[in-house]
């Protein structure tokens, strides 16, 4: 079993040191909130961000992080931004170790001053930091689902037992439910889906929805890509594969049910017909705190359900004629070890194209379907086994295949 370092129980000799990859995003900033609220349990080790250098620099000053990485700034720009943030805060500028460029996030993830890495990058670019954190022996609190889904067996092989803890709300719920039962007693996993902003629409009605409508998630405030993926149900499709990889449950024993209130975050049905569900108001700070504090709960991380008020929780089947992303992902995952990299890369390209006004909403799913159906690993990979090289080739093929659809349409 992986040694997570000091337990953040308040009674340990020092707080657990946390590196945040994607510290400027939705998961990253909520991770910083959790850490700031529990200074006896957690301290910031490292920070890595993308293009928001000003916020990254302010975070570096506020937290005293020992390592700071930026994908977009030069070392001089990052140092200057940190000095400016310190001046603005009226404090002495800290002198963290700086990392810049495309490998910065992975270098910060591997940085030795951490016990735990919270990976909150968006997209398959999260794979390198995921592998770097695991190889460095850190506990990995994983929000960046794409790295597990794309990396598949590569990520699983790199993780020692207990080293990878899910932060995604559904998988945190499943991990919590599974603490009460042995895996041989699991009948099936049931992931809840909010249904997104377009719940109840037909496929024809989906064709004309706008990016602004897709970004109006009914229950969660998240980054642009995952919010769009929730609207298309691609997020739930990725999560089915994520659950399959995390918990070694067959794909045909993983179901999705639409639960618009997002209070039951998922459930495990055991072989005797008993179901254990995890419920809490929608707030990512709870699964983030549990992820970085694993296996300990952090008191006050989230608020509980208010049982004194009348409330209705509803569950309904998913309309798979309108939303085909989950069926398509199950097919892709069963096809080859690199098909999900193709699925994800085609989706990443299509989401960007949708927000750029190049394609319509239903073209997202059509783009993924075409890529998954046309992809032939024997041709694209020329016999290469699952490896970072093979994944890069599969992704490059998928991105080119996706783009060619809207280039041709011009
Ligand atoms: N938000 C949520 O509630 C949930 C999110 N997740 C998952 O967590 C991940 C993050 O989602 P979310 O926080 O919403 O996304 P955001 O878009 O809000 O944040 C993404 C973060 O990644 C950073 N980033 C982008 N490129 C790089 C790079 N090359 N190197 C380092 N950092 C980079 C961004 O930096 P910058 O802004 O500076 O460019 C930003 O900090 C996704 O995989 C998502 O699916 C899962 C469950 C819930
Ligand atoms: C908070 C979280 O974990 C998200 O992945 C959330 O599940 C998105 O909501 P959907 O159920 O609409 O995909
Ligand atoms: Mn989720």
Automatic annotation (TrEMBL):
Binding site for NADPH: 24-27, 50, 52, 144, 146, 223
Keywords, ordered alphabetically: Isoprene biosynthesis, Magnesium, Manganese, Metal-binding, NADP, Oxidoreductase
Family: Belongs to the DXR family.
A GO MF term: 1-deoxy-D-xylulose-5-phosphate reductoisomerase activity
Name of protein: 1-deoxy-D-xylulose 5-phosphate reductoisomerase
Origin species: Citricoccus nitrophenolicus
Residue ranges of every copy of the DXP reductoisomerase C-terminal domain listed in the record: 280-400
Gene designation: dxr
Domain 1-deoxy-D-xylulose 5-phosphate reductoisomerase N-terminal: from-to ranges: 18-152
Entry binding sites for 1-deoxy-D-xylulose 5-phosphate: 145, 169-170, 194, 217, 230, 235-236, 239
Necessary cofactors: Mg(2+); Mn(2+)
Source domain of life: Bacteria
Function according to Swiss-Prot or TrEMBL: Catalyzes the NADPH-dependent rearrangement and reduction of 1-deoxy-D-xylulose-5-phosphate (DXP) to 2-C-methyl-D-erythritol 4-phosphate (MEP).
Enzyme Commission code: 1.1.1.267
Pathway note: Isoprenoid biosynthesis; isopentenyl diphosphate biosynthesis via DXP pathway; isopentenyl diphosphate from 1-deoxy-D-xylulose 5-phosphate: step 1/6
Binding site for Mn(2+): 168, 170, 239
1-deoxy-D-xylulose 5-phosphate reductoisomerase C-terminal domain sequence ranges: 164-247
């Amino acid at each position: 079993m992986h040694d997570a370092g000091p337990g953040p129980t308040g009674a340990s000799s020092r707080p657990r040191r946390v590196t945040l990859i994607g510290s400027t995003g939705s998961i990253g900033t909520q991770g910083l909130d959790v850490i700031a609220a529990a200074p006896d349990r957690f301290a910031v080790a490292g920070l890595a961000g993308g293009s928001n250098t000003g916020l990254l620099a302010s975070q570096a000053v506020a937290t005293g992080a020992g390592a700071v990485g930026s994908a977009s700034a030069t070392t001089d720009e990052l140092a200057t931004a940190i000095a400016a943030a310190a001046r603005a805060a009226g404090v002495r500028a800290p002198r963290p170790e700086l990392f810049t460029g495309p490998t910065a996030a992975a270098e910060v993830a591997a940085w030795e001053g951490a016990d735990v890495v919270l990976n909150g990058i968006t997209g398959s670019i999260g794979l390198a930091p995921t592998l770097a954190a695991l190889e460095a022996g850190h506990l990995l609190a994983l929000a960046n689902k794409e790295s597990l889904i794309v990396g598949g067996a590569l990520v699983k092989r790199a993780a020692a037992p207990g080293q990878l803890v899910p932060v995604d709300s559904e998988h945190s719920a499943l991990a919590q439910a599974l603490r009460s039962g042995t895996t041989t007693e699991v009948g099936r996993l049931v992931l809840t889906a909010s249904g997104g902003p377009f719940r109840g629409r037909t496929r024809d009605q989906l064709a004309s929805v706008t990016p602004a409508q897709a970004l109006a998630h009914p229950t969660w405030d998240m980054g642009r890509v995952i919010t769009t993926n929730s609207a298309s149900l691609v997020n739930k499709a990725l999560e089915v594969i994520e659950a399959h990889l995390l918990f070694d449950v067959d794909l045909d024993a993983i179901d999705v049910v639409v639960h618009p209130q997002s209070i039951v975050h998922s459930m495990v049905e055991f072989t005797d017909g008993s179901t254990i569900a995890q419920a809490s108001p929608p707030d990512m700070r709870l699964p983030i705190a549990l992820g970085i504090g694993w296996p300990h709960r952090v008191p006050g991380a989230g608020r509980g359900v208010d049982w004194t008020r009348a409330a209705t929780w509803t569950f309904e089947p998913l309309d798979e004629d309108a939303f085909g992303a989950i069926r398509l992902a199950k097919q892709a995952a069963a096809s080859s070890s690199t098909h999900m990299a193709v699925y994800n890369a085609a989706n990443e390209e299509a989401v960007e194209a949708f927000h750029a006004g190049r394609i319509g909403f239903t073209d997202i799913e059509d783009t993924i379907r075409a890529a998954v159906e046309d992809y032939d690993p024997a041709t694209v990979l020329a016999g290469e086994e699952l490896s970072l090289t093979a994944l890069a080739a599969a992704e490059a093929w998928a991105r080119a295949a996706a783009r060619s659809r809207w280039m041709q349409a011009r």
